[in-house]
């Protein structure tokens, strides 16, 4: 991962921790893909995709979480759940721009 991507993930993790989430894992990998951050929000397990985009051209950061990317995230999350279990979970997205302004989208998509 590039330095900017690593910085974006770190800023996202700090931001979410400041909002009460507990970090469980970073860059969780399976044969299906990778989840940037896995956190706990109360009783819910939260799988988080962090996206940074230099511009809004081509739809910006949110548009980069395509249906194909969502499918990989879901499969990777299922792999994590098989290993660790959870009663409730959701998929969030944290979007950053060049100035590291953060937009947190809870329940960004459904599995």
Automatic annotation (TrEMBL):
SUPFAM superfamilies in the cross-refs: Restriction endonuclease-like (SSF52980)
Top-rank taxon: Bacteria
Molecular function in Gene Ontology: nucleic acid binding
InterPro entries documented for this protein: Restrct_endonuc-II-like, tRNA_endonuc-like_dom_sf, UPF0102_YraN-like
Family note: Belongs to the UPF0102 family.
Annotated protein name in UniProt: UPF0102 protein Msip34_2312
Species whose genome carries this gene: Methylovorus glucosotrophus (strain SIP3-4)
Lineage of origin: Bacteria, Pseudomonadati, Pseudomonadota, Betaproteobacteria, Nitrosomonadales
